[in-house]
Specification:
By secondary structure, the chain is of the alpha/beta class. It is 33% helix and 15% strand. The protein is built from 15 helices and 16 strands. The strands form four sheets. The protein has a six-stranded parallel beta sheet with strand order 10-9-8-14-15-16, with helices on both faces. Strand 15, helix 13 and strand 16 form a beta-alpha-beta unit. The radius of gyration is 22 Å and the shape is globular. It binds 3-phosphoglyceric acid and magnesium ion.
Length: 398
């Protein structure tokens, strides 16, 4: 795989790349990866990795280093064990999978077993880098976290962005720089509070923004609709109203909803109960909107079909429940079939694409959820800033 070319603008500028590392033969290299992958009980016993996308995505970097004679040690967080050793977040299943995909690459224990990781404790960084000659960050999905293993090592060791990190930054940075028009974004998922900043930033970039998923109800409430028992962030209604005021002509909201009747259950792993019905945008008391309706899905799909660039983050509904999967499915198909350059980020949207066997038809599938949103919102990430300050980083203008 050829190295990325050196750009003259955008977030890749000033980043040290693998080629900027000193001689690696016989040297020890610490690679921060994001192997925060889903695990499940194996019916045959033990715990296994159920989706190794993030592990496979780091292989080009791991093999590049190994081929140059480096002894490679990877390190990752897994879940949120909150600074204590918690066997549920043991990386052993990840290590097993890595041993198959990248034999010879070692994997340290879960970084978040130590409170020094999230606390960015300098003593923890010192222990982490002890004995290593170089550091590589290939953990795009975690580079929005100012944690010890992300921001600490570049101040202590010659450092580089791995191939995955560089590619992610190149693609997402490209969305910020020169996207083919029209640029359409589809946003979903449940939490509007987490995403207001990025929605604001995206509205400055895109021609149209389609809003689905649980977050749509706070927007619908801002328009005066009754949302029944749907997810609602009451404290954010004013902010949503402001966005609609500023850019309402470019925001596409649902015009119909698939809702679940009072007392019904839905979600992953539960056999759902209750009546599911297609409704308009005013839901009666007790009804919970759990998917965009067919008319909305068609409108979103049309927007995508006519676009030059698409960025999709977040499912349109509770797609793990077949009754509320159609909206996400229609959108996923439209993204896969779009003639434009399509980028999908976020575990749930990627899982939906995988479920439909459509991931290969998307232009770029990001390994980052929060990280891809943060990069689009801020144009930079703590992990990238740290790399630019490494002693071996290319000097400005070089
Ligand atoms: C992710 O899965 O989004 C990344 O690995 C970051 O994990 P975090 O949200 O627990 O920091
Ligand atoms: Mg996350």
């Amino acid at each position: 795989m050829p190295g990325p070319s050196r750009p003259s603008s955008g977030p890749l500028v000033g980043l040290p790349l693998l080629e900027d590392l000193p001689e690696l033969d016989g040297r020890r290299v610490l690679v921060r990866v994001d192997f925060n992958v889903p695990l499940a009980q194996d019916p045959r016993g033990g715990v296994v990795v159920t989706d190794d996308f993030r592990i496979r995505a780091a292989l080009p970097t791991l093999s590049w280093l190994s081929e140059r004679g480096a002894a490679v040690t990877a390190c990752t967080h897994l879940g949120r064990p909150k600074g204590t050793v918690d066997p549920r977040f043991d990386v052993a299943p990840v290590r097993d999978r890595l041993a198959v995909l990248a034999p010879g690459v070692a994997l340290l224990e879960n970084l978040r077993f130590d409170p020094g990781e999230e606390g960015d404790d300098p003593a923890f960084v010192d222990r982490l880098v002890d004995g290593f000659d170089a550091y590589v960050n290939d953990a795009f999905g975690a580079s929005h976290r100012p944690h010890a293993s992300i921001v600490g090592p570049p101040a202590r060791l010659p450092s580089a962005a791995g191939r995955l990190l560089a590619r992610e930054v190149e693609v997402l940075g490209g969305l910020l720089a020169t996207p083919a028009r029209p640029f359409v974004t589809l946003v979903g998922g449940s939490k509007v509070g987490d995403k207001l900043g990025v929605l604001q930033a995206l509205l400055a970039l895109v021609d149209r923004m389609a809003v689905g998923g649980g977050m749509a109800f706070t927007f619908l409430a801002a328009q005066g609709h009754t949302v029944g028992a749907s997810l609602l962030d009451a404290g954010r209604i004013d902010s949503c109203a402001k966005l609609l005021e500023q850019a309402g002509d470019r925001i596409i909201l649902p015009t119909d909803i698939v809702a679940l009747g009072p007392g019904g259950t839905a979600g992953p792993g539960v056999p759902g109960s209750g009546e599911a019905r297609i409704m308009g945008t005013d839901l009666p008391r007790g009804w919970r909107g759990l998917d965009i309706g067919p008319e909305t899905a068609g409108v979103f799909a049309d927007a995508v079909a006519g676009s030059g660039t698409v960025f999709w983050n977040g499912p349109m509904g509770v797609f793990e429940d077949e009754r509320f999967a159609a909206g996400t499915r229609t959108v996923a198909r439209a993204v896969a079939e779009s003639p434009g350059f399509t980028v999908v980020g976020g575990g749930d949207s990627v899982a939906a694409l995988d479920q439909l066997g459509l991931a290969a038809q998307v232009g770029y599938v990001s390994t980052g959820g929060g990280a891809s949103l943060d990069l689009l919102e801020h144009g930079d990430l703590p992990g990238l800033q740290a790399l630019r300050h490494a002693s071996n980083a290319p000097k400005a203008g070089a």
